[in-house]
């Protein structure tokens, strides 16, 4: 099994990144979907695939593509892909890159859904939640050895599993 930590929209709140890094140090891949508002070289973001959000500065890429096992990830913040109107533009960009998974942020609302064959994951915001469950969140994607994929959402304050509350 492979473990992928996905966070977004931390907005200067390094305490959430620090806690996630410590609790999930066994992860195979760390993704930050933008709006960290930190320098790209900030030590808490070391080892992360990271992209530029609408509130970021510096030399972040607009999107990133990375592979883990048989999966290819397309990572973006989402604001340049009209994510507030739905995932279609992000999914199209992911498919153009040959990605099977698209990770994005910007809306601060946790989402896990398959759209046109692409698993779309928005981990929500650790710092400023929106949507049904009004607690900060992040996501963990488990890539099982049998090829199945499982997404779980966690409260960024106490790290309890809140997936069932979102369904």
From TrEMBL:
<dbReference type="InterPro" id="IPR024654">
    <property type="entry name" value="Calcineurin-like_PHP_lpxH"/>
</dbReference>
<keyword id="KW-0479">Metal-binding</keyword>
<dbReference type="Pfam" id="PF12850">
    <property type="entry name" value="Metallophos_2"/>
</dbReference>
<dbReference type="GO" id="GO:0016787">
    <property type="term" value="F:hydrolase activity"/>
</dbReference>
<comment type="similarity">
    <text>Belongs to the metallophosphoesterase superfamily. YfcE family.</text>
</comment>
<dbReference type="GO" id="GO:0046872">
    <property type="term" value="F:metal ion binding"/>
</dbReference>
<protein>
    <recommendedName>
        <fullName>Phosphoesterase</fullName>
        <ecNumber>3.1.4.-</ecNumber>
    </recommendedName>
</protein>
<dbReference type="InterPro" id="IPR000979">
    <property type="entry name" value="Phosphodiesterase_MJ0936/Vps29"/>
</dbReference>
<dbReference type="InterPro" id="IPR029052">
    <property type="entry name" value="Metallo-depent_PP-like"/>
</dbReference>
<feature type="domain" description="Calcineurin-like phosphoesterase">
    <location>
        <begin position="3"/>
        <end position="145"/>
    </location>
</feature>
